Every structure is written in structure tokens, then in C-alpha cells.
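As a warm-up, study this chain.
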Amino acid sequence: MKFVVTLGAMLLSLSALAAKTYQVTGPIVELSDSRIIVQKGSDRWEIERNPNTKVTGDLKVGQKVTIEYTMAADTVEVKSEGKKK
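Now compare it with the structure written out below.
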């Protein structure tokens, strides 16, 4: 049983490492405990923060930062195709 639990934990760790990461760089325009919003060109990027978010330095509005993040689906709903001809 210990082997199965250990194997499952190892597979979860590997899948987390395999997740593709992205990054965005720009000045912080809004900041809270739960999110950071940066301006990149004319676009505002809203990135969620959680207790596991690693921060190096003191975050302040106006500071230029680079944020690394991943994208993962929380839910997927298959929609019907509608009427067929």
C-alpha cells in the first residue's frame, strides 16, 4: 500500500513539473493578497496569487515584475452540436 501511495505522489510531482509555464512582464497597476494586475502594452493581465506563490522582493504598484504562471483547466463541459441537417 505504501508503494502505491508513494508512486501516486511521484506521478503527481512529475505532472506538475511537466506543466508548460508562461510569463508576462510589466509594471504592477493593482495589487492585493489574491491577485497581481500588470500592464503589458495596452493589455491588463490579471494573475491570481495563492499561499504557494513565491515572491522575491517587496511588491509595490508601479514596480516592473516578471510573473511566471501555468494554465490548467478546472472543468470542461462538452456542449451539444445542435441540430444536424
